[in-house]
Specification:
Helices cover about 20% and strands about 25% of the residues. The protein is of the alpha+beta class. The chain has a seven-stranded antiparallel β-sheet, covered by helices on one side. The longest helix has 12 residues. The chain is globular, with a radius of gyration of 16 Å.
């Protein structure tokens, strides 16, 4: 098992999830963050799938030295923090609701859940979504992909197959996403907190709790 691509078992029907996405979500216009990347919110601060999207964070947000600085930078973007984006939207039904419910039952505190789309022949630049010292883990379930799609760290690069697998990815580390294929790439993603420390490489530890303050995840950080 890789430290950078830890797999986690989630009981759901991947084929049914894909069918539901194509039949309902994909018929709606995505919220785009630029020309190449966007998506649809499954949980948000309101019940709307268009809520919870922000533009790229300025460097000051991911280079902040304290949690107070991170929160201050996010407030400038009218972003409250991922823990506030847990209200089910109109898209939180069927198989994806099963995923959210399972994660909640297992105390993985899913928030800011969404489908993301990366257009064909496009990529995102190397970046990180959280300061390196701040816990930042995101669950990825590939929905639609092709063999020319990759998630890349400096240490490791992988194609994530749409075969029912679910991955935990560290987004406080420098990474990028590549789609060199001729079809769009769609992943379900959500911020993830291993409160009960059941994973091998992505535990939300006492140190993380002290940084954000309190026993529950209250980071008010990230994108």
């Amino acid at each position: 098992m890789s430290e950078y691509f830890e797999k986690i078992h989630i009981p759901f029907d991947h084929q049914q999830l894909c069918k539901e996405f194509i039949a309902s979500t994909r018929t709606l216009p995505p919220v785009m963050m630029g020309k190449h990347f966007g998506g649809w919110s499954v949980t948000a601060s309101t019940a709307s799938y268009s809520d919870g999207w922000v533009q790229e964070l300025p460097p000051s947000s991911v280079e902040a030295k304290t949690i107070a600085e991170v929160r201050e930078n996010n407030l400038k973007l009218n972003f409250k923090g991922p823990q506030y984006y847990r209200t089910p939207t109109e898209l939180c039904t069927g198989e994806i609701k099963k995923v959210i419910d399972f994660l909640s039952t297992e105390d993985y505190f899913p928030c800011r859940a969404r489908y993301t789309v990366l257009k064909a022949g496009c990529s995102l630049p190397f970046h990180r979504d959280y300061p390196e010292w701040l816990y930042g883990v995101r669950l990825h379930i590939p929905i639609i992909t092709n063999k020319s799609c990759f998630f890349e760290y400096a240490q490791e690069k992988r194609h994530l197959a749409a075969d029912g697998s679910a991955y935990l990815l560290k987004i406080n580390m420098i990474h990028r996403v590549i789609n060199e294929g001729d079809k769009e790439r769609v992943h379900f993603i959500c911020d993830f907190f291993d409160l009960k420390q059941k994973t091998q490489f992505n535990k939300f530890t006492a140190k993380d709790q002290n940084i954000v303050g309190g026993q529950n995840p209250k980071p008010s950080a990230g994108r």
